[in-house]
Design brief:
Blueprint lengths: L1 E5 L2 E6 L2 E5 L1 H5 L28 E7 L3 E6 L4 E5 H8 L20 E3 L6 H15 L1 E5 L7 H6 L5 E2 L7 E3 L15 E4 L11 E9 L2 E2 L2 E5 H11 L1 H9 L2 E6 L4 E6 L2 E3 L5 E4 L6 E3 L4 H18 L6 E3 L6 E5 L3 E5 L2 E2 L5 E8 L1 H15 L1
Helix pairs in contact: 3-8, 5-6, 5-7, 6-7
Bound molecules: fe (ii) ion.
The site of fe (ii) ion has 4 residues, from loops.
Length: 364
């Protein structure tokens, strides 16, 4: 690693790369005493108070991959270069995503036992979850409310109009198709909410009916393949606005969005596919003709054997899914031959990410 600088730019040479750093960018990352609270590491000043013409006066490498920088406002600070480069390159501290289809996927279940060694167990569960967008936990006590106890080990529960948890079993007058015994094709949950629920927990208490297998699909793998195989369809699904809507006697929920959402950098951000609840906005038939064709291509993919991982949840099994990436569904079942009772709830992405980061410090 090498450094040089002039008044308005600090340059860090790392392997083949040169990172050019603005004086204010590096100045506002100072963690010296008086600059940030030493417990929270939050700034003790407004960075806008620093003069905009701030200059770099000196910069030198120190031992242990550290760097010392002096500024024109008489402040000087020491920085850890590895940490800075991680931030500059946006290297994620979460495990990298591994896209999968049915051929790559093996149904790995993670046993969980309360008590000793919980951190290591939760770490392995959350690692797999962040890589694959879903995870199955087994050996939990198959009882009412257990899912809340387990979920609260990871994060805060997001209550909705379905309650803190929802019971997925066949009902006589259901307000959602989840509460029937019909087959549900691959979908993401609740695209009509603002914000859309991040992570779904689905916990099996009883599942002795014939049928009722669960299915999961990696929506990011499907989107990636769609982009390669049919870029026109991909672009249509990235750009077409849809109104997602839910309505019952107690709630009218609507959200506008797209089936495939990309980040500003063009990365896959979110899949919203729920074909019982989506209403594409009015447009001319010529435009909609193309949209409907594109949507059918994706529909065929997310419901094909190539992508579907199918399994029977056993009592005590918990399926955790990233609702922004993974689609899920279930096969139809027959309640005359047994019983099927699942309980579900939602938590937010930030709690699962935070828990993983904390656990990785603890166990690694
Ligand atoms: Fe669902």
């Amino acid at each position: 690693m090498k450094l040089d600088f002039d008044a308005k730019e600090l340059r860090v040479y790392e392997k083949e790369e040169i990172f050019k750093i603005h004086p204010l960018w590096i100045r506002e990352r100072s963690t010296e005493k008086g600059e940030v609270d030493q417990n929270s590491f939050q700034r003790l000043y407004d960075p806008e108070k620093i003069k905009p013409d701030l200059q770099i006066k000196n910069a030198q490498l120190l031992a242990d991959n550290k760097m010392h920088v002096e500024f024109s406002d008489n402040h000087s600070a020491t920085y850890c270069l590895d940490k800075l480069i991680t931030e500059i390159t946006r290297s994620n501290v979460l495990p990298p995503k591994i896209y999968w289809d049915k051929n790559d996927a093996e149904l790995k279940k993670f046993s969980f036992a309360y008590g000793a060694n919980e951190s290591r167990q939760l770490f392995e569960i959350l690692k797999f979850y962040h890589q694959y967008g879903y995870v199955v936990v087994e050996d939990l006590p198959a009882k009412d409310g257990e899912v809340i106890k387990f979920a609260e080990k990871i994060g805060f529960i997001r209550e909705t109009n379905f309650g803190k948890l929802f019971n997925v079993r066949s009902q006589k007058q259901p307000n959602d198709l989840a509460y029937t015994s019909i087959e549900l094709e691959s979908h993401t949950d609740n695209p009509y909410r603002k914000p859309v629920p991040s992570i779904q927990f689905l916990f099996c208490i009883e599942n002795s009916c014939k049928g009722g297998d669960s299915t999961v699909v990696d929506g990011f793998k499907v989107a990636e393949d769609l982009k390669k195989e049919n870029p026109q369809a991909f672009n249509i699904l990235v750009n077409t606005l849809i109104n997602y809507k839910f309505e019952d006697n107690d709630a009218i929920l609507e959200k506008t969005g797209k089936i495939i959402k990309l980040s500003a950098r063009g990365e896959l951000k979110q899949i919203k596919y729920s074909n019982r609840l989506d209403f594409v906005f009015y447009d001319e038939p010529k435009v909609l003709e193309e949209f409907y064709a594109a949507k059918r291509v994706m529909h065929q993919m997310i419901n094909s054997d190539k992508y579907i991982l199918q399994f029977h949840l056993q009592p005590g099994n918990l399926l955790i899914m990233n609702n922004y990436r993974t689609l899920h569904g279930r096969r139809s079942y027959n309640t005359s031959e047994g019983s099927r009772w699942l309980q579900g709830l939602y938590i937010d992405h930030d709690s699962a990410e935070s828990k993983y980061k904390l656990l990785s410090k603890e166990v690694e």
